[in-house]
Design goal:
CATH superfamily of the largest domain: Ribonuclease H-like superfamily/Ribonuclease H
Order of helices and strands: HHEEEHHEHEHHHHE
Largest sheet: 6 strands, mixed
Structural class: alpha/beta
Number of helices: 9
Shape: globular
Distance between the termini: 27 Å
Helix content: 40-55%
Radius of gyration: 19 Å
Number of strands: 6
Strand content: 5-15%
Length: 222
């Protein structure tokens, strides 16, 4: 990853030159991605966020699960609806926990979350009478628009962008019967969908690390 020296002050460049990554013993100017993982995460808590839902609209569907991957390491944070909740409160507890977990971060990174993940979460929060983070409390960046505005691809879907940048992708495709069984509370199907969500946030982080140097840092709110 190239260092965005055009955006840095002389003192910041000197700090990068003096810094050494623990894994490779290279300077921050040579291994900028390592510097990001070790330093940016300590300055700004960044999480890669994705949800899976039963429908594309929040008045016809509910949240089945969500995943948040902290930048650079740490366990993926997730919560999946249970069979009992599907029979009683639907996604209320998943949404409640999602709001609590996203509030641990200063910035969320999504892929098309501007139009789907975040509006869906907000809608379900309002539906369940839950407090959603107020405007400006958590920053948001969207890799879909990074790819659309800085690359020229046949599709800006997460899977295609990751395959283009890395030659492969972790993403898989969920067969329809998993969605149907998940809504019936089938444990295996719910686990399969959560695994799919985890793979998405792993690819999401990889895309962001490739594209972050080519866009102006924007402090949009979730």
């Amino acid at each position: 990853m190239l260092v965005p020296v055009h955006r840095l002050k002389l003192l910041e460049i000197r700090k990068l030159a003096a810094w050494r990554c623990k894994e490779h013993s290279h300077s921050g100017l040579v291994h900028y991605s390592c510097w990001l993982k070790e330093n940016v995460s300590s300055q700004e808590r960044i999480g890669f966020f994705d949800i899976e839902a039963s429908n594309l609209t929040a008045d016809w569907g509910i949240m089945l699960c969500y995943c948040i991957k902290p930048l650079g390491g740490g366990e993926i944070i997730s919560r999946t609806v249970t069979a009992k909740e599907l029979r009683t409160v639907l996604d209320q507890e998943v949404v409640r926990q999602a709001i609590k977990d996203v509030s641990q971060f200063d910035r969320l990174i999504t892929h098309y979350g501007t139009k789907f993940d975040l509006p869906f979460l907000r809608s379900r929060a309002l539906k369940n009478n839950l407090d959603f983070p107020f405007f400006g409390s958590i920053k948001h960046s969207d890799t879909y628009y990074m790819a659309r505005n800085r690359l020229r691809l046949s599709s800006n879907r997460l899977e295609n962008v990751c395959r283009f940048l890395y030659g492969e992708t972790n993403k898989d495709h969920i067969l329809p019967h998993y969605w149907i069984k998940a809504l019936q509370g089938d444990t295996e199907s719910l686990g399969y969908i959560t695994s799919h969500c985890e793979k998405d946030v792993i690819d999401l982080e990889r895309i962001w690390l490739k594209l972050v140097d080519f866009v102006q840092r924007q402090d949009r709110s979730i």
